[in-house]
Specification:
This protein has about 120 residues and is an all-beta fold. The protein has no helices and eleven strands.
């Protein structure tokens, strides 16, 4: 089972930016798909962005044009660049990876956007 560790969360004002990182214990090439989910208090976990091969990146409608998912294969790391943040983006963000028939989650990182 792949081990995933997120970092980069924090407190930011509305309109600001954050970049989340997710480092994998295995090569990103071996994980498909890779992506980010989030869970706000009292709500279900929801997809934010995901990369599938083939297919490419896909985004939730609520973050299209503001968030960008990317990978650095040399560093075994996945990123989520979040711009123009809104208070409704406040949640715990989890990275996800599927490898060798098993899905794995990171421990989560808190993102709080103040108005």
């Amino acid at each position: 089972q792949v081990h995933l560790v997120e970092s980069g969360g924090g407190l930011v004002q509305a309109g600001g930016s954050l970049r989340l990182s997710c480092t994998s214990s295995e090569s990103i090439f071996s994980i498909n798909p890779v992506g980010w989910y989030r869970q706000a208090p009292g709500k279900q976990r929801e997809l934010v962005a995901i990369i599938t091969v083939p297919g490419g990146p896909h985004y939730a409608d609520s973050v299209k044009g503001r968030f960008t998912i990317s990978t650095d294969n040399a560093k075994n790391t996945m990123y989520l660049q979040m711009n123009s943040l809104k208070p409704e983006d406040t949640a715990v963000y989890y990275c996800y990876g599927f490898s060798r028939g098993v899905g794995s989650w990171g421990q989560g990182t808190q993102v709080t956007v103040s108005s």
